[in-house]
């Protein structure tokens, strides 16, 4: 129960070492010993490994998957979150699970995002099961999938490769079934001829520095890309409207009037938002007058506009 409380409530691990918490446990559960912080962390690691194995086993049994990915920064640290989704075959119920929250170091460049996403997919062995990955319209995500994302030709080539491998397996089975055992002598003869040919093969030389230069640029394999519809609508409501009114030149047109009114209105609102965020006194006054704080819109928050 203590472990579930700490995990579900996102409480610090050292809670079990706090004297007041120890008193609560000793009075509510007399005769029971409270685990120490080290034991708690070991139990959490064991629970994580069990849950990881169960989720990986479940994903291996699912034929088609989709994922979502998003990167953000908080408290001067950056993270990448990835979720997985699929439709249960029998009940047609949608299943959703959190795959990973990875710590990102450095800038959120397209190659770092690609490497992080591929590492999670490889960890769960689902690289060839993901149909699409949904992200926002950020240029780093868009470029990541433009460079490393799967194309229709890649999917067709993969299907052809699987068909070829299947045909090879079938041919091998037919060969071992219908060809008599006497062909062993022929195989040995072929091997001796190959050994004789190898004696006359030329030794090829290559520059090892060129090999390292060729492998310097990493290549990652990502699924096809799907842009979030909610974020796309948000861009329509902000960027596209901003572009539309920026071209209004005629003072009589409705766009010109909306442009003037919106600039005046948003200038006043921006002033209120800045005062609330910069002064606790103003924020308390707003809370007293309206009962709530003003919701400050941001460019990266999808539902803020």
UniProtKB/TrEMBL annotation:
Superkingdom of the organism of origin: Eukaryota
UniProt xrefs under InterPro entries: RNaseH-like_sf
Name under which the protein is recorded: Transposase
Organism: Macrosiphum euphorbiae (potato aphid)
